[in-house]
Each structure stands twice: as C-alpha cells, then as structure tokens.
Description:
The structure holds 2 protein chains of 2 kinds. Chain A has helices spanning 2-34, 45-78, 97-126, 240-251, 261-269, 272-275, 309-317, 319-322, 335-345, and strands at 135-142, 145-150, 155-158, 160-164, 174-180, 185-187, 196-198, 204-208, 214-219, 232-238, 299-300, 305-306. Chain A is α+β, with helices and mostly antiparallel strands. The longest helix of chain A is centred in the N-terminal third of the chain and has 34 residues, at 45-78. Chain B is mostly helical. Chain B has 16 helices and no strands. The two termini of chain B are 20 Å apart. At the A-B interface, helix 2, helix 3 and strand 9 of A face helix 3, helix 7, helix 8, helix 9 and helix 10 of B.
Amino acid sequence: MASTQHSSTLGVFHLFLVAIWSAAASTDTAAQSMSPTNIFAPVSTPAKSIFGLSIFVLAVAAAIFVVVFALLTYSVVKFRKRANDDGREPPQVYGSNQVELAWTVIPVLIVVALFMATARVIADVQKTARPENAIEVIAIGHQFWWEYRYPALGVVTANELHVPVSDSTHPTPTLIKLLSADTDHSFWVPRLAGKTDLIPNHPNSMWIDPHQTGLYLGQCAQYCGTQHAKMLLRVYVQSRDEFDRWIQEQRRPAFASDAASRGQRIFETTACINCHTVAGTVADGRFGPDLTHLMSRDTIAAGATPNTPQNLRLWIRDPEAIKPGSLMPAMELNDQDLNALTAYLETLR
Amino acid sequence: MSTDAIALPRTELASRPFVDALHEWVTTVDHKRLGILYIVYALVFLVIGGFEAGVMRIQLVRPHNDFVSPQVFNRMFTMHGTTMIFFVAMPLVFGFANYLVPLMIGARDMAFPRLNAFSFWLTGFGGLLLYFSLVGANGLYGGGNAPDVGWFAYAPLTSRTFSVGHSTDFWTLGLLVSGFGSIGTAINILTTILCLRCPGMSLGKMPLLVWLNFVMSGMVVLAVSPLTAAQLMLLVDRYLGGHFFDTQAGGSAVIWMHFFWIFGHPEVYVLVIPAFAFASEIIPVFSRKAIFGYPVMVAATICIGFIGMSVWAHHMFTVGLSSNANTFFVLSTMAIAVPTGIKIFNWLATMWGGKIEFKTPMLFCVGFLFQFLIAGLTGIMLSAAPFDWQLGNSYFVVAHFHYVIVGGILFTVFAAFYYWFPKMTGRMCDETLGKLHFWLFLIGFHLTFDFMHIPGLLGMPRRIYTYEPGRGWDIWNLIVTIGVFFQALGTLVFVANLLWSYFKGKAAGNDPWDAWTLEWSTNSPPPAYNFATIPTVKSRRPLWDLKHPDDPDWKYE
C-alpha cells in the first residue's frame, strides 16, 4: 500500500514535469534569446534536472505567495480603521489552537513534498556513477584563468574548453575534475550544469552531457581576487568529428617558421618562459596559460578580449589596459621586439 | 500600580558646557544612553555603508563601466558587507535591546551596567579599527587600503600570500574586538531578563520583544564565539606560522567556511529575530488587538533559534559536500520555513478583526510583512540544493538576502524608530515626513531588489566589478541602480525627520500610541532610574489592565 502511494506521488510529479517540459520547449528560444547564460535554457542533463526541480519549487512558491498575499491584502484593506469609527477597542482574541495546528501542519506537508523532490534531484546529479566512455578533463582554476588538461588524450589548453556533443544513442558525457592552483573559484556555465567550486586541497568533480553543439558561456562564480570579473568561461560543444579533429590539432607540436625565429628568441630569453609553455621548446612554465596552440583560440586573457593581433600586442605591452590586476606583467619591450614577439605568437597555431 | 516619576526640581543650567555633556555621554553606564549611543553609531555607519553601495551601483550601471577600478570595487563590497552587518545591523539590534528590555521588564538598568558600557565601546572601537585600514593598512605612511577579501573572507584569499599588507588584519581585529563586545552585551541581556524582571512578570508574561531578544542573545553567544575563534586562527596563520587555513601546507579552506557560516547563518536570525520583535509589539498596538497566539509565537522563536544553529552549510551547497550532507542541510533549512510561516500567520491573525491605524510605524510593519513573505519564498528556492547550484553566488542570492535585511529587518527598524522615538526624546516624529520616507524607500527598495533577482537567473555572479555586454543583464542593472537613488532620498528624509523632530517635534507625552507595555507608563524620556516605584504586573499587557479595569487581560491568560 505504502509503495503504491509512493509511486503514484512520483507519477504525479513526473506528469507535472512533462507538462512543464512541453511548455518550456515552446519558450526555449525565448529563454535563449534573453541571455546566453539563462539558467532556464538548459542543454545538458544536470542543468535539465535542476530546471525541472526549479519549476516545481517556483510553482509551489507562487501558490503560497498568491494565498498569503491575498490574505494579507484582504486583512489590511478590510480591517483598517474607518472614518466613522466608534472609538471602542475591537474584540480581543488571544489565539486558537485549532487554527495554529492548521497552519503548522499544512506547511509541514508542503516542506515534506519539496524536500522529497529535492532529495531526488540531488541523488540524480550527485550519485550518478561515472559513465562509460566519458571524456575526462581536469580543470584547474588560476588567478584569473582556467587550465584544461585531457590526461587520456594528452592535450593541455587554457580558457576555452572543447567537449563533444552527447546524444542518447551515443552518450559521450564529459567528467570534469576541479582543482585550484591558488584561491577558491567556481565553474559555472548555467546552460550546462549548476556551479561547483574549485578549492585548493579539496578536489571536486562535476559532469555535463551537452545535447546541442554550440558555444556556451559562463564565468567564475566564487570571488577569487582582483580580476574575478574577467575570469570568463567558454565551452565549445562540437560534433564528435570536429572534436576529434580539434584533439588531433592540439596534439601536434608547435609549428615554428624561420620568419618568427627572432620573436621566438625574444620569447625564450625573456621572462615569458617562466610562466608559459610552448610544447617542444624550452618554454615550460605553468603559472600562465599554455601557448602551444594559442592561435587556435578565439579569445585571450580568459575571454576578456578577442584574439586579434592588435589585442595580443596590447596584452603583451600593457595587460592593465585589458584586465587591470591581472598577474601578467607588462613586458616593457621596444616596438620592434614587440612586433617580432607578436609575430612569433601568431605562428602558434 | 504607581509608576509616575518623581518630579525633581529643575536644577539644570540653561547652557551646560559642551565638554560636560560629552563627558557625561562618554562615561555613562545608563542603559538608555548606551542604547542611544549604539543607535546613533549605527546610523552614522548606515550612511557610510549606503555610500559604498552607491559607488558599486554606479559602477554597475552599464557593462564595461570604468567609474572605479576593480581594486576599489572589491574594497567597496567588502566594506559594505562588513559595515552593514557588524556596525549597522548589530548595533541597531543591541541599541534597541539595551534601551527597551529593562524598561519593558520594569527594571532600573541592565544587570551589568559597566559591562554594558565596556561592550559598547568595544563595538565602537571595532568599527573605527576597520575604517582605520583606510590609512593604516599598508603601513603608516599614508597610502592605506581597505580590506578586499569579501565580507566572508574565504581562505586562502586571506593568507599572506594573497593578501599582502595589513588590510585583512584590520578586518580581523575589527571583528574580533567588536565580537567580544557583542558577546558581552548578549550575556548582559540574558542575565537582565533572567534576574531583573519586576514582580509578577513570569517568563510567560514577558512582552514578546523581551522573549525574542532573549533568544537572540542566546544565539549571539553561540554564534559569535566560533567567528571569534576563527579570527584568532587566522591571525595565528598570518603571523605565527599556523596552517589552519593554509592550503599549501595541508590546511583546509573548507574549515574556514564551516567556521564562518556557523556564525554567519545564525547571525541572520540574530538580526531578524529582533525585527520580528519590533513587529510583534507594533502590529498589535496599531491593530488594537492582543498578539494572536503568544505561546506559539514564543515556541516558534525558540524553534527558529535551535534549527537556525543547524542550517549553516546551505551556504556551502556548491562546495562539493557529499550528497548526504547536502540532503541533511536541505531538510533543516526547509524545516525553518515552518516556524517562520507560523509567525507570519500569527501577525496576520493579529490584524484580522482589528482596527488598523496606518501611522508610519504600522506602514513600515505592513511593508515588512509583504516583503518578508517574498524573502521567505526565495529562501525556499535557495534551500533546494540543486536550484542553489544555479542560484548560489549569483545576483539572485544578493537580491534574496537584501530582501531579508532591508525589506525585513531595516523596514521594522524604521518602524521601531518612529514608534519609540517619542519615548526616547519626548517628541513625536513628523507624520508627513515619515510617510514620505516610507513611500520613497518602498519605491526605491522594490526598484532595486525586485529587479535584482533577474540578472541572477540570467547567470550574473555577484562580486564582479564589471560585466560583458550581450548577456541580457544591462537593463536590469540600470533599473537596480535607479532604485538606489530613491532609497538614498528616503534615508535623507528620514534623517531630516529625526533632526527636525528632535528640536521642533510636538510633545509626545508618556503614552502617545495608547500602548500596553511598561515603557509607556513612565516619562518620555524616562528618568535615569526608569521607574519611581518598581511596577507589579499581572498580565502580558499591564497597561491594558490599567486602562480596562473592567476587562483585564489576566482574566483570560
């Protein structure tokens, strides 16, 4: 008996979710056009589970709001002191146990319903076993940029995460291990999943399985220092072919032409190499982003500005102009050296 | 019951030297004067904290604005949060508790008057220490820095690696010092309530305000102690080579979060329970009815006190706790909605069948009821951990807790000002200016904090000094900033009203609101000894009994 009741409650909950789902599908484009980071336009299972729960919670809250708001408004209007008041005190009522019991038990029931729905989604998202053929990525938060390592694929990159699309016939979820090199950060791409913090000495993980290709935006959601605001997240969800091609390209060693050799010499004889890696050269610093395939990225400075030659040159000359408080120092090079260095970086495809 | 003050001959000189008056205020141990000192001190910091909020809102009015640098913005939100919680809200709460509790229980002063003064001055110096960082944080050569680690100062951002100079030390020491002040005052309030009640006032006959301040003080002792301990640990880390929070040496950043939030969440109740206390006194008087369900209100408050100590990790749903831990804190957090809901229903039932008179204090209380309803409902949304994975640390959270602190607490504090100002000064506040203040502040509040929820839902995290265009956040941020100016204007009217009424307001008399608790039985302002004869009470509303000898409360309680 108890189990039948249980399943029928869940059945109602499911029906409710399905109804919301179909309603949401029609407003999906509207939600997307409102903002590229709208939490109500999910494209990945964790974000969708949260979306379902949030609609349920919102509906309950709205119902409570309507009832209590109406009662409050009614009593404030109805029981105001009239102009023709007789000046006598109204009847004094000290309380009523029946009424108190009613407005204790009803909220308790509502809380139980909300709690059960919530506990289910927590289990769905947090207790899911590591899926087969998941892509594993290690995301490391730095002040104020993201390092991404694909240990099984031998790829290291920064700030722009590439993952394959996952469909129901060929699920290819991505498991992200979250580490921090310095302070606390938080990985938040609202359309893919809720946020999870990156805390030094406290490894975390999360997973996503985006169902649509495209670029998904987000940003660091835990205050991490001066440039917390420009620690932006970009997740490129690609078809399996495109993703494999991208992996192949990232695995190639850096390409260096003769024309850039002067720039390369400058790069390798200044402080650049203390912080940056270019695979296959002497540059093996890990404090800043890996630059081996810098030109394959759309943006620089953790998404703060587009990756154009002008911006790259400005970034080397005066990082403060783009991202004040960033840990990249101004390199104090003369114009010729600056041009040569920029030219070299532009060969890192 | 003889509660008239003894009429002393007027011996005061027409013009007392300023230094004498100042000396009296600095050395006072009178609970009423200390209460007023707390309140004035809080009002000064309210203006400073409001100014800091204004700087932030101007910076965020449009994307890629450059009104202030990221460094300045980060200091502004750190100072705004720290100031508003520790040096505005806490002193306001303690100020009113100090002033009202002895008067309401028929006592002549607090249990420990000298501890009371000591606690006030500790809190006072705490605030000065925090703001001294502006000149002293980089050393004493003038180029100072306010702290920029955020008001919950997560490790390891506060370690010497990431926070050079002394700005974090000023933050730590300021809170450490004022924390001892808070604990001192809390112990004082607890002792006063337990030991100094007038004859006839059993625990069950105390005014609700006294009960709620009792629970609040108990929570202060339990909640401020871990914060103080954590501050000491942080100092040990920074100067004595400790590794409590030093993640590079095996310390734990998460431990700091636990220490901070086991203070931080009870702190919300420390602030909101006195707000409930004001509402529980003011709503009955202006509805002309006894509070509905007094025993249930007391029980609900104690319930909130206990459950409130076990919900802290709902601030940490995104930290990566186990799913079992998350589930526990979802349950405890949702459970607290029940006693809180009971309170709202009891206030509603108190108004039901009454004759509600919309004087300024009542207007603010009605605003509080509607706004606290919404704050509670957004709180339920945040308590559902998966929903919080999206909403946590976004502008939705910022909107939610400002709904509690401004829409709930500040509104009832304004109500308390208008309600007890006549008792404190002997003069009425101007009603027209009061209503103007209410409407300006109401409009400003809703423009700012209603619309602040939306960018949070659209993915805008808090504590960012600027944002990218094209995220759909621009228009909402513009509206939010416009609202701030209405709030500032409202506050200006409020301060003008207080000043004008202090000098020119019409005489209040002992009992301007025809109220029922003991503070209205003595003079306005009350003499230093409060009551010429210690009163004796028979019910929760001694002045009702006095005014209605044919139909006294004690027949029904």
